[in-house]
From TrEMBL:
SUPFAM superfamilies: Cytochrome c. Gene3D superfamilies: Cytochrome c-like domain. It comes from Aliikangiella marina. Pfam families: Cytochrome_CBB3 (PF13442). One of its GO terms (molecular function) is heme binding. PROSITE patterns: CYTC. It comes from the Bacteria. This is Cytochrome c. InterPro entries: Cyt_c-like_dom, Cyt_c-like_dom_sf. Keywords: Heme, Iron, Metal-binding. Residues 37-118 form the Cytochrome c domain.
């Protein structure tokens, strides 16, 4: 099992976060049944996050003009708070409102991706790295 996971992580390096979604069954993201996002749309949203959000929050989302968007930095923020910030934007700052560009389900996906799945993916990757180092 661990060897297969290592191979998958190597093979799907760019999609490690989506892989974590499927392993841990994170689907639906607390949205209504009317709008279920496809894998393709989720990939597009992750790209949007990297490119559009990354232009202010930094390439690795560690902060730049905007604050960091790392799970540890978002830990004390409620899901509703983060959804509202993305939906409405932040008045008097560079943070735009996304309510006219993204659906509620898409915004919820981004919040869950930032707070839940990236944390799971990072922990999974660390387990594999530790296992690889231990087997040398």
């Amino acid at each position: 099992m661990v060897i297969k996971l290592k191979q998958l992580f190597k093979k799907w390096n760019g999609l490690v976060y989506l892989f974590a979604f499927s392993i841990f069954g994170i689907q639906g993201f607390h949205v209504s049944a009317e709008e279920v996002l496809t894998i393709e749309r989720k990939k597009a949203l992750i790209e949007l996050l990297k490119k559009d959000c990354g232009s202010c929050h930094g390439k690795w989302l560690r902060g730049n003009v905007g604050p960091p968007l790392l799970p540890g930095k978002l830990r004390n923020k409620s899901r509703d708070f983060l959804i509202k910030k993305i939906t409405e934007g932040v008045e008097g700052s560079e943070m735009p409102a996304w309510k006219n560009n993204l659906s509620k389900a898409e915004i919820a996906f981004l919040v869950d991706y930032l707070t839940i799945s990236r944390n799971i993916a990072q922990k999974s990757a660390q387990i594999i790295i530790n296992d690889t180092l231990a087997s040398r």
